[in-house]
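Can anyone check this?
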Amino acid sequence: MSSLPKLDMKAGDLIELLDNNDSTNSSDVTPTSSPRAESRDLELLYGRNEKSGKKGTFAASCVYVLPTVEKPTHDFVVSSLWPTQ
C-alpha cells in the first residue's frame, strides 16, 4: 500500500475537503496520519484543489476552513480571507 500524495496549493486556492474513504478515491492508499491527531499542526486532511483538480493530503494548520455546503463564490472567499476593516 502506498501513502496518499501531498497536495500542492497556493494562497487563495480553494480546496474541497474529501473523505479518505470516498469511493472516488483510490482504494489502494492509506492515510499518512490519524484523522484526529492530537495537534492541529500534525493533523492531515485530504482534499482536492479546485484549480488543479489534483487530490492529496495537507496540514490542517495550512488552511482556513469555510463552513459551507456548496462551493462558495469568489467574492465570499475573498471577503472571508481578507475582510475590510
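Reply from J.R.: I decoded it. The beta strands are 2-3, 15-17, 29-30, 44-49, 55-59.
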